Amino acid sequence: MTGSTAEHQEDNVQSTGEGQVYRRKYNRYVGSRQGRARSYGAVIFHSWRRALGIRRKWTSKILPIFLYVAAFVPVIGFIAVPAIIGVDGFEFEPYGLFSSLSLILLVFAAAASPEMLCDDRRENVLPLYYSRGMTRWDYLAAKLIALGSIMLSVSLLPALLLFLGNTFLQDQPFSYLGSNLDQFPRILATALLLSIFYAAIGLAVASMTERKGIASAILIGIFLAGTGIAEGLYQAIDSDWSQVFVLMAAGEIPEGLVQLIFGENVSGSLAVRSGIEPIWFLASIAGFVVLSALLLYRRYLRED
Amino acid sequence: MTATADSATLTQSDNPTLINATSLSKHYGKTVALDQISVELPHASIGLLGPNGAGKSTFLKLMLGLSAQTSGDLMVFGRDVQENPMEIRRRIGYMPESDCLAMDTTAFDFVRHMGEVSGLPSNDARLRAADMLYLCGLDEERYRMIREFSTGMKQRVKLAQALVHDPDLVFLDEPTNGLDPSGHDEMLTLIRRIHDELGIAVVLSSHVLEDIERVCDYVMMIDSGRLVGAGYLSDLMDTRQEITLELDGDVESFSEGVRRRGFEVSGKNGMLTVVYQDDAVFDAIRDAAVDSGVAMRTLVTRRTSLEEFYIDVVEQHQADQEPV
Known about the structure:
The complex is a heterodimer of chains A (304) and B (324).
Chain A (H helix, E strand, L loop, with lengths): L2 H10 E3 L4 E3 L12 H18 L6 H27 L8 H29 L3 H5 L5 H34 L3 H7 L3 H24 L5 H25 L6 H5 L5 H10 L7 H4 L5 H23 L3
Chain B lengths: L16 E12 L2 E12 L2 E5 L6 H9 L6 E6 L2 E2 L4 H5 L2 E4 L11 H11 L4 H14 L15 H13 L5 E5 L7 H16 L4 E6 L2 H7 L2 E6 L2 E7 H6 L2 E8 L2 H10 L4 E4 L2 E5 L4 H13 L2 E9 L2 H16 L3
Parallel strand pairs in B: 3-8, 3-9, 6-7, 7-8
Antiparallel strand pairs in B: 1-2, 1-4, 4-5, 9-10, 11-13, 11-14, 12-13
Helix pairs in contact in B: 3-4, 3-5, 4-5, 9-10
């Protein structure tokens, strides 16, 4: 119990020896006020609860649980099956995992980002946040942190689990760890960049509408249909500059990023077939993030 | 003192200034929402009165720091709103006019969340949320989803969230909107208690004059973005008394006698109304009655309602605005 709570109760509680009578009345608050950090924490925690369906009806929990299962079960399989059947030295590379995680990240972003923003806009809750110790920047930053951390839990934790699993499946785990330690920052960087990428685009799309279903559909459309259109244009236009279309295809970014960070090609992807220098995918991520930030600025930060 | 021009000052020195606006203007493009408002508002229950579109909500937004003024200065708690918006907002509670509640949550969770956003630790926010919902008459229903609530219950949740962090000043924007007569009455009683018993200053924005008259000590009137009057209700009303007379005899001579002594008089058929300016009016009536030899059957002093006062002030302001 905090000190302030104790004071609060002391003022209201009368001890009768056998029990306590709690006198409910309005009291001036004498406890601590924790300022902006507390406001951030409250909005982040509230956003997590909404996105993950915590303390909400059971139908709200189905998709988050399914997506976490989809992210972790294959990894557990990659680790458990070789361990059970006794295959020594088995190794499933994390870069291959990111390719499949990108689809889960997309669905998670499509489901979670509208939960972050759409209800607050539709239900007109924003004036209540802004009239407290919170600026528009604070609100958006808290939402970005909330969504980004959820994305990070889907992108980073399975990859880390796989890395640890690979380590302990080896005959000489410490030797493997020593020689593959460079994998750790690569995993971290990839997971972090993908999380920022999906969270930024997800929030930008969610800021455009108050309808959660429409926001989800637009986000999935940008990734799937956008990628299809970009691929069509890239193949139809026989020119060097047509590679730009590949960089504009949001769905190809994860493949390009993995190629850049791990130096490995994920077979069949347009990002690889186009022969674009992988560093350009980093520029493409920056472009998408800046574009999303501009959209969020227009929707939230421009006063009046 | 009563201010019917563009400035107003306190009449009661025991209440320090809560809000101080100096030549405050707010323009949206070519539209002037607030025009050169200068006013000092005391720590009291303040009514912000004006027709729809008069600039009340704009004034509230400026005080909350949600919008920046085009020119002029605005101080709340003695601090500049533009320079210290966070510090001021932490001490303010706000109940917007429009719906602002998360429907897919319980009243308790919502109010607690708003307490946490205001910086209260979790345990304290939990206790305060329960207490505020109890205070606002939602003790039994606090674990029900807000979407199941009636309009009156939603208004109570809005009020509870405005009070959860124990503000020194609370802005209530049309708090009785959509309430049935009994809910309307209960809400006004609750608002009166907030100031009288809890010591929280209240700024009540409304176009319902009866609400302001019932709840507020001080009133600020806005029309078309301009301040048309401000002052303690008691002072404003005292200057707006009328004396109704029922006379027999030479009423014309009596009327002339009152006018000659410097007071306005109107009416006919023995029923006259004399405008009260000060107690000298009673001497004038007595002397005129003696001179004219009328028999005075009744003499009743009547206070004008806020509505009559408001209509007079706004009509006067609009007449002043019209080109000659």
